[in-house]
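User: Show me sequence and structure for the first protein, then do the same for the second.

Assistant: Starting with the first protein.
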Amino acid sequence: MTSSSFPINDALDAALARWEQYGRPGTPDTGFVLSRLPGRRTRGIYVAGSEQPIFEPDAHILAMSPAPDGRRIALQLAERADEDGVLAVLDTTSGNLRHYNDIHCRYEPMQWTPDARSLAVVARSPQRLVQVDVVHDEVTVEPVAGDARCRLFSAGIHMLLAESRPASPTRLIRLDNSARLGSFPSITGVFGINDGDVLVYGGNALHVLDAHSGVERWRWMDPAVRLTAVTVTGDTVHASAVRAGASVLLRLAHGTVIDEWPVNSGGSVASITDLGADGGRTYVVIEAPAVPPHVVTVDERTRGGGAATVAGDFETVRHEFAADDGETLTVVVTSPKGLTGPAPTILTCYGGFGVPDLPVFEPTIPAWVESGGRYATAHIRGGGEHGEQWRRAGYGAGKRRGIDDLADAARGLAGADLTNPELLVLAGASHGGTVVASCALDHRGICTGFATTAAPLDLLSLEKHPLGRIWLDEFGDTSSPEGTQELRAISPLHRAKMIDPEHRLPRFLGIVLAEDSRVNPDDSYALASVLREAGAEALVWEAPHAGHGSNHLDSLHSMGSVLLSFAAHTTRRTRSSEGRHA
């Protein structure tokens, strides 16, 4: 099925458009903020604390890095949604934009020298260190390790290079003298701290090192948490983290946690989705399924202020259900207030790469819930909601564990009289799409339909995807007959080929992205073909001008409207309002 023939539910489409009018703000950086303002389709750069525009392009802004003096901003701009950005430098006074079209970037950190006269970035295709003298418009290039993924960080006056290799610790090296400061299981970010020391964070640990010798000043580690963002103000560290499936905010000094605050908004389950510091203040972005994202200072947050009002007559509740091995699974459910009994439900998950799947504001959620449905997110093993042991339990050869967890979450919702299989649609994007497809096909009768977005669905052919080579460890080992057999058993495409057509099959929607540079669409078309041959109703819809990363609002609207319309039709709701086509 093509984009011109997908039936759209007009009522849900209109509700989605209303909820999309909320913006998505960012945190201040050197007096600027990268945000999507209410009603705008694209992100732009604005003066912090106002809506005064500095730069509002039609292109996708992948990243920004203001110079220390605020006179220029380094940008990564992509004309399409394929995440192929190029370096550009914006003069904030004149508005002049200088493109460096041969310097390709994909979310790589960009670092300015303290005098704001030059910046540096590890560019891609090919990988090399690029330094740009913005005063004289001169570019110099230096080689970096060819067998590692390299990223550049800044800590005060020091430029540091992180080298990551498969199955090896990540090395942190000083750029000026090639001295190795240390090796770490992972590096997500690096900051200057204490007037000359270096803070390194990643996974569940913080390390502070002497910038000259690499001697460790202090270390903090908690295997029960997953750090999602860190910022430094003076010698104080603030970190957003996930503990026991919930978002928390930590404040540390000299390696000791001074405060830990659970995150909520107006008493509702909520999450921190961004963290930053500027002008001596620390800012957080807080949101929830029925609470649009809003920026508050840490001072406001810790005093109990800065809470936004729930934007609809909804409630978000954490439920706990037992997995078949006795583990406790958390499912976060947003429902209309006062709703009792089974209701049409969309159940989502992610469950991979140690990424926490937290309750956030996504316009499809209130649009669906205000029409009488429930929207649920399951924390399954393989994700980052419950620490490293949880993550490892659903990794590699343990991938089936996360798939079974999703089935147990669905059974838990039915057992709690929140939904039933005839009213349940599973939905997942990317890795989450792989999980929901395998679950729907392996656990027959668990749902009435399932939808995937940009998902790899043939696990025996991951290498054919543009980024498939880096997923191999996450899904399992194909180097042995046993490993190949385990992958075949959970691969959605291979599960579909083994289906007995005598049994009723769930309805399938595969959403593919026209400008996806990570996952190619072939798996979705192949799965739909196999399911149709087995007698199932299976559709594939291509989202125009959409990619795997940053997307404009109109692309997000099209994808959300198609998903909600599929769920409504599949659960046999409001069919009379269907009739328009996307």
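Switching to the second protein now.
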Amino acid sequence: MEDSSIGEAAYRRIRSDIVFGRLAPGQRLGLDRMREAYGASISTLRELLSRLASEDLVVAEGQRGFEVAPVSAADLREVAALRLLLETHALEQSFAAGELDWEGGVVSAHHKLAALERSLLAGEPADAALWKRYDWEFHHALIAACGSRTLLKAHAAAYDRYLRYQMVAVVFRGEVAADEHRKLLDAALARDAATAREVLRGHIDGCVAQVLDTGGLDAFAPGCSPARAGASPPQGAVPRRTSRRRASSASG
């Protein structure tokens, strides 16, 4: 029987490759090639891909095997709405219950994110995975005091599905997003949940608009080959920054 640690490591790598677009939407997941790439047996890979299918990151095609879940404007809107629903509820609970240590965690997480955003805005090279990790850490810090592990787990799953769209669309909203993060920080320290809800809505809706307005999903439309769609961001690449005018209009 294969060591469970091998299977878990393979699961994390495959999941990361899907979320960060290294495995493109619609791409066939051949088990022989995956066995070579991830070092897990065929039977283990089938179990892992079924697990990822339950997370809506992989699609099981019966006798045809597995492929990376497709992307679409409709699904993006649904995923964004789910993230907004979960995150706004968690914000309210967290703002009400958070203590001084929670505030410190929020400030620390924002400090790291803001520093990396300044580098991106200055045109300096940066690691996309690190950028999005800091983004996740900040948003997670905001809701960390909500008191519900179930809510945090559901939010993490929705966030990753939303993140996949950000990565395959390859966009960065620049100063607009950085300003929204600053406003979320200020609202957290003021315990102003109403303002935080509105800022978060604009933050998420603006990203959805940006992805759709720039045609970020066009390469993955039906009829496009997954190989062409494989022009998704390479590991370590940072999404292109849109113009200030475009980003401002997208923030709606």
